[in-house]
Amino acid sequence: LVKEGIRSSLFLQNEAAALQHPQWQKLHKHELWPVLMDPQTSGGLLAALDADKGEAAIAQGFHVIGEIML
What we know:
Elements: H1 11-18, H2 22-25, H3 33-36, H4 54-59
């Protein structure tokens, strides 16, 4: 949905609030930014991404909290 440009109804309000804080401003251009602004996914509390993108996410200020084991 993110790649298709689909946003929650509160996206713009959450984004405006987040961008008032410097620590969020550096993440604004990250491809997962819309996920962080989505209240239905718990926003910045949790997001899942492919393991090969972990290092890039860490370099941009995100934190790895776990790994899915199958």
